[in-house]
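Sync notes, pocket subgroup
Present: LS, DG
LS reminded everyone that the earlier model was apo-only. Rerun requested with fe (ii) ion included. Inputs:
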Amino acid sequence: MPRQIQTLMLKEHERISRFLGQLEKEIDNYDRTKINFNKFKWNLEKHFFVEEKVIFNMFVNISGKETTDTFHLLSDHVRIIGMINNVDEKLRKKIRPDLSRLKEVLTAHKDFEDHYFYPRLDERLTLDQKKEISERIQEIIPG
Ligand SMILES: [Fe+2]
Ligand SMILES: [Fe+2]
């Protein structure tokens, strides 16, 4: 029995939150912040890759014209990556970044996926589709 996509992604969202938490915790230490930021960014990029290339594509395929949710989620991703690039820019100039807005947007995005998007996706996917998606997710991110 393949795992529910929501279970995998909820766990993955918690991992990303921990990377952000670590970044916030050591924000006053420039060297640690650079390391923490790179880890956070790398993991978030992998996460978005999985969502965009595997999950959203599959959802668009099964739901036909129902693309409003994925469109909304994709535009969030673009916005979040823009914010990440701003933080990157600040760090290059050795300016202490303000993470509060990024955290707010990321939390709202994650909540929508956890409470609405993924539970609904799980209801709609066949067992074979779930199996295919969960295998691909686990190729990219640790299970
Ligand atoms: Fe997302
Ligand atoms: Fe996500």
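DG: The pocket of fe (ii) ion (ligand 2) is lined by residues 9, 13, 47, 51, 110, 113 (CB under 6 Å).
LS: The helical segments are 5-25, 30-63, 68-92, 100-124, 127-140.
Action: DG to write up.
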